[in-house]
Amino acid sequence: MTGKPEIQLTEQNFTRRAGRQLALYAVYSLLALIVLVYLLSLVSGGSGLSGSAIDADSNTITISLREEPPQLDSGRATDAASFVVIAHTMEGLLGYDDNSQLVPGVAERWEIREDGATFWLRDNARWSDGKPVTAHDFVFSWQRVVNPATGSEYSFILYSIRNAEAINNGELPVSYLGVRAVDDYTLEVEFERPTPYFEKLAAFSTYYPLREDFFNSTNGRYGADADMLLYNGPYVVSEWVHNASMRWEKNPFYWNDKKGFLDAINVGYITQDVNAKLNLFKDGQIVDTHLVAPMLPSAMEQRWHIQLFMEGTVFFLEFNHRDGRLTDNHHFRKALQLAQDPAELVYKALKEASYLPAPSLFPEFIQGVNGPFRKEYPPPEHRLNLAEARRHLELARQELGLDEFPPLVLLSGDTPVAMVAAEYYQALYKKNLGLDILIDAQIFKQRLAKMTSGDFDIVLAGWGPDYDDALTFGDLFASWNLNNRGRYNNPRMDELVRIAQSSLDPKTRMDAFGEIQQLIYDDAVIIPMYERGWSYVVDPRLKGFKRRSIGPEVDYNYAYIDVDGE
Amino acid sequence: MWLYILKRLVQGVITVWFIATATFFAMHNVPGDPLLNDRAVTESIRANLEAKYGLDQPLARQYLIYLGNLARGDFGISFTQENREVNDIIRHHFPVSAILGVLAVVFAAVGGVLWGALTSLYRNRLPDYVIMFLVILGISVPSFVIAALSQLALVNLNSLVGHTVLPVAGWGTLSHMLVPALVLGLGTMAYLTRLMRSSMLEVIGSDYVRTAKAKGLPATRIFARHQLRNAILPVITVLGPAIAAITTGGFVVELVFAIPGLGRFFVEAVQQLDYTVIMGTTVFYGAFLVFMVIVVDVLYGIVDPRVRLE
Question: Quick count: other Cβ atoms within 10 Å of Cβ B265?
Fold first, then answer.
């Protein structure tokens, strides 16, 4: 053994040398990693949007969108994200201003008669390629929507136009649709039945125009990409990276200088994750975000200006009125109705600060003859009354000839809010009425399938408005309405809906809605739960931002940057 | 070896066919109706939609049509992202997932090997205890918690510095990738660290290491050639499935960081009953997984000459 001590391979210096070697490897791999990351970033080639929420120099803002629009074809769009984009890039005959009042759009003026309507179009409305928007573009668009081959899910909203329904059912050719262009700037509409609220329908995006030659040039891919669209609104989609980002730029051909003040709007993020949105907002990357209950305390600590908006979607327990169901029994439904109080659900169970207990199917924003509908026709007063509830339950037991009620199936969605509500009612009805409830929580499509086939006793359902008229809620329980998934069938209800649909006198119509509201309560057609609202925050430098019940849920058409606003 | 690869490829094709068939019938037996939506539609519109997606045909015929299209590499049109072909969706979004996945796997593999070697070198001493504690954390804390926490940390970091050091979410540049990839790779890194540590400990006590030491080989050579190289083999074995798992399992991280990867489609398609996208992503990912396993097996033979591929 002649080796000197320092090169002797003791355990300790083996570790030291090996450790040094390991450190060397670590340095190598770190260098290699940096090179790799750099190379990857070269090939990934994303849009690289890292702008801030508000860029005053370029007059640009950055927003996030809740999900990827399936396509931007206004005639076929059905989802909230598409409606938001379309509301900024397209324009119909009429629109809504920043006070939610109906204002002229492509139509300069219009006239609604008992048998039809005439729209006189402005001559300075242009498509984003510079050509004028004409009455023919509306005729083409509407014919396409009611054409069954198009498969437009919102085609029913055109049914007040003559023959629309028959064409949509494949019984007549599209040329029979009651709309024609008298000349380039005059659009003549014939009604199937009197439709006094047609102007409100005409503001809906399914009624937006579409130019035939452009549509044909897209070979069936209309709306699928930024270059597969033609725009006539304040902004155009100049860039659309699917599921990642979009850029809307000011449309140079747009006629109205009271809309579209920004040079560009970046949709920097497409995400539903409310925590991610909040973090982006905090980091100054997006101009607005909504807040859920757990976020409110810290938002208040930050002294943010929190705003509340009732969006007009009402959620309710819908009964299955099909024959043979327990819930077809009037007394049974009354018992369930009287044994609950929506205020307890909202304030004690859901605890979502922006939700309000719903006293009626008609939400707060619906207008009556001269003012808010619910001021003119107050909803029936509801009080929890256990004695009365039990009396009805006993009557139901006798009528149905049952010794004991079998368990009820409560169909619900699988969202956290729906689950809390379902469990709340399960516990409530066990405690108050001794009824057993089985919760059937399903994903969205499966819940719809079960609702449509009637595979439930009670379902947690909801309804949001399509157009700014009480009828958008009022006809929901007409026997012919396909969305009446509980199959409620009452001749009196049908009669009232017909009056509300066709009467030309606003008072008569509103009286009918008032009676519908009362009937829904008296016959316990549904049990209203809550009206959904949003708590949200907006960057103080952005003015004119709006949330809406009708049309796009968020609206930047009237938004502008005011840097001193802080 | 070529014969071996060919054999494995044929097996792979059969596996993919089996995946496609099982998914097809399972999917059609999931309750629910892909064509239903919030607003009810009339019979005639429904019939048109059914015809458009071929749902009006009997199931057996749908299956044959489907297999025919699959053989041509055509997955059809998405039900929810109308006008978009599933092939397009995969082409656009898989690279994003793949880049994220590759980065995460590289982080995980490099980190796992280095940390694992370090802990075994300093076994039962402070570095070992600290790292193994972190490893337990990494394995047991789910990725959505780590993702959310790291995003919050980014927000705080940015507000502390006063400008955006690293973006909070989104995709596109180098800086967007780092944190999500780290978060995505963390669980695997922890797992590989443990694997590497135990495999190192086994090697350290083996006869050939003792012989090497007795021969008087330099410490660095023993460590690099005899210990690391042998200990790394089990890590490589699990790397193939790990790559596939990370690339396909990025859903949560993609969601939290708003990354336009394929993982979102993979999960959301099932919730939406988007038949064509379910089939497209499942078959694609299945083929990807099978392919990765073959690649790793071949790689194994290169790293360890003792393994013969036959």
Answer: 30
Q: Do A271 and B34 touch (CB under 8 A)?
A: no
Nearest to A271 by CA among B256, B168, B270: B256
Q: What is the DSSP letter of A254?
A: -
Closest chain A residue to the Cα of B215, Cα to Cα: A9
For A49, the closest of B52, B92, B172 (CB atoms) is B172
In whole angstroms, give the CA distance from residue A55 to residue B190: 42
Distances from the Cα of B214 to the Cαs of A15, B177, B205, B303, in angstroms? 16, 47, 13, 26
In order, the DSSP letters of A108-143 are EEEEE-SSEEEEEEPTT-B-TTSPBP-HHHHHHHHH
Helices (H), A434-526: 444-453, 471-474, 491-502, 506-522
Between A193-202, A274-283, B154-163, the lowest mean confidence (pLDDT) is in B154-163
Predicted local confidence at residue A566, as pLDDT? 52
Question: What is the reported pLDDT for B171?
Answer: 82
C-alpha separations of A470 from A161, A200, A222, A408, A523 in Å = 19, 11, 33, 32, 20
Residue A180: phi, psi to the nearest 5?
A: -150, 155
Inter-chain touch A275–B164, beta carbons under 8 Å: no
Q: Determine the Cα–Cα distance for residues A245 and B260; give it in Å rounded to an integer.
A: 9
Which sign, positive or negative, has the C-alpha torsion A523, A526, A530, A531?
negative
Q: Percentage of chain B surpassing pLDDT 90?
A: 26
| Domains, in order of start, for chain A | 7-54+271-310+537-565 (no CATH), 60-250 (3.90.76.10), 311-532 (3.10.105.10)
Write down the pLDDT at residue A11.
77
CB of B154 less than 8 A from some CB of A: yes
Neighbouring C-beta atoms of residue A219, cutoff 10 Å: 8
pTM for the full predicted model:
0.85
Measure the CA–CA gap between A23 and B118, rounded to whole angstroms.
Answer: 9
Confidence of residue A2 (pLDDT cuts 50, 70, 90): very low
- Chain B positions touching A43 (Cβ under 8 A) are 95, 99
- Report percent pLDDT > 90 for chain A: 72
Nearest-by-CA chain B residue for A484: B40
- Calculate the alpha carbon distances from A103 to A244, A250, A258, A471 in Å: 34, 21, 12, 20
Weakest-pLDDT range from A18-22, A48-52, A90-94, B254-258: A48-52
SS (H, E, C) A521-561: HHCCCEEEEEEEEEEEEECCCEECCEECCCCCCEECCCCEE
CA distance A244 to B93: 10
The model's confidence at residue A330, banded by pLDDT at 50, 70 and 90, is very high
Say whether domain B95-271 belongs to CATH 1.10.3720.10: yes
Mean pLDDT of B56-76: 89
CA distance B39 to A157: 11
Number of helical (H) and strand (E) elements in chain A, helices listed first: 17, 22
3-state class (DSSP) for residue B220: helix
Q: What is the pLDDT of residue A271?
A: 86
Question: What confidence score (pLDDT) does residue B309 get?
Answer: 60
Q: Where are the domains of chain B?
A: 95-271
Which residues neighbour A297 within 8 Å (Cβ) at sequence distance 6 or greater? Answer: none
Q: Alpha-carbon distance A115 to A103, whole Å?
A: 23
- Could you give the 3-state DSSP secondary structure of residue B14? helix
Q: Is the model's pLDDT at A4 over the cut of 70?
A: no
CA B60 – CA A455 distance, rounded (Å): 27
Residue scoring higher pLDDT (A394 or B244): A394
Cβ atoms of A550 and A202 closer than 8 Å = no
> What is the number of CB-based contacts under 8 A between chain A and chain B?
234
pLDDT the model gives residue A368? 93
DSSP letter for A347, please: I
Residue B257: list chain A partners with CB under 8 A.
276
